[in-house]
Design goal:
7 helices; Uridine Diphospho-n-acetylenolpyruvylglucosamine Reductase, domain 1; 26% strand; 17 strands; 4-stranded antiparallel beta sheet; globular; alpha+beta; Uridine Diphospho-n-acetylenolpyruvylglucosamine Reductase, domain 3
């Protein structure tokens, strides 16, 4: 079997040197949904923001704090993405998954998925999510949209939207944002080439123009080493380098 990788919107993926020696399968056009009673089934390439608004139109909620995360459903489940006390696993019921190494197509329950902070069983086993079903919560459309708008305001006030980035570059450490340690280390604004630690949120590395993969990786490693030297902790990447 030729090497391959399945990707969605690639919002937190960095291809090392911009090269992948294999087949890249992109799922962004696989974005169907099925609403049934108080559940919604989403294809792997679906957008969480669109799903939240579909639910809102039907007086349902459950994804409010996740609106604005640019990843697809498949990638978000693989990473157990989250924001504002929400995680994609919170309302998860089941998923149809393909295991390439076993050539097995099977349905996984929430227990089977083994969700943890920014991790899941499908990530560890390199499985591919085909679609997933979630529980929806009865809420008025107005209430849902108000919370969505409030979360979006908070996100725009705290995150660097003026420059492209791969989102949050590092995971929390013992429940504390990696950005806290990076800022305390005096690294806000530090740059290597076109890659720079955001002055708005130190947990983000932004592309100020012409940043290469090498710039980004070198800056990642410098930040990790500096934080370790000062605080004696290691922060771990949230983005994936392939």
């Amino acid at each position: 079997m030729a090497p391959f990788i399945v990707v969605g919107r690639m919002s937190n993926i960095l291809f090392n040197n911009g090269i992948y020696n294999g087949i890249v399968v992109k799922t962004t056009k696989i974005r169907t949904y099925l609403l049934a009673e108080n559940t919604i089934t989403l294809s792997c390439g679906a957008s969480i923001s669109n799903a939240a608004r579909i639910l809102a139109r039907n007086d349902l909620g459950g994804f409010e704090g996740l609106v604005g995360i640019p990843g697809s459903i498949g990638g978000m489940l693989r990473q157990n993405a989250g924001a504002f006390t929400y995680e994609i696993s919170d309302r998860f019921i089941k998923a149809l998954c393909y295991f390439p190494r076993k050539e097995l197509l099977t349905e996984l329950s929430k227990e089977d998925m083994s969700f943890s902070y920014r991790n899941s069983g499908v990530k560890r086993q390199e499985a591919v999510i085909i679609n997933a079903t979630f529980e929806a919560i009865p809420r008025s459309s107005e209430e849902v949209m108000n919370e969505i708008n409030e979360c979006n305001k908070k996100r725009r006030a705290s995150q660097p939207y003026d420059y492209p980035s791969l989102g949050s570059a590092f995971k929390k450490v013992n429940g504390i944002s990696a950005g806290y340690y990076i800022e305390k280390a005096g690294l806000k604004g530090f740059r290597i080439g076109g890659a720079r630690v955001s002055e708005k949120h130190a947990g983000f590395i932004i592309n100020t123009g012409g940043a290469t993969c090498a710039d980004y990786i070198e800056l990642l490693n410098y930040v990790k080493l500096k934080v370790n030297q000062i605080f004696d902790i290691w922060i771990e990447e949230e983005i994936e380098v392939i």
